[in-house]
Specification:
This protein is mainly beta. The strands form two sheets. Strands 2, 4, 5, 6, 8 and 9 form a six-stranded mixed beta sheet that branches. The longest helix is centred in the N-terminal third of the chain and has 15 residues.
Length: 141
Amino acid sequence: MKYYFLFFIVFVICSCQQKSNSIETPPTNAPQNVFFKNINEGDTLVSPFDVEMGVVGMKVKPAGELEAGTGHHHIIINKDFIKFMEIVPMDANHLHYGKGDTIAKGIILEPGHHKLTLQFANGMHMSYGKQFSKSINIYIK
């Protein structure tokens, strides 16, 4: 009888210990591979221009639901990446592609130097942080 009770206690303890996909800590195996497919550091572009966006290790999915391993793109103009789990603002400098877009069409910027930051975020627009961001500097004619 002692052994059954001991077995029961061990079973209960083991079954209660489950992995959680907490949204409070960044994924430890996440690649730092968010990238611009068609533009590079130092490129000179003519406005309006299109941006092709890519990510490795995550699936692109429209905003709305929280699902582990998924998210959508944002382009941040002349600003840095958004810290992990902070919500990406919605304004003229933070362009949202919450429909699951992988191409941003017709971006219009004034002539001069600009910094573009590609930021990947979850279904609730909460940033996956620096490891899912990429910044480049471009020049608009």
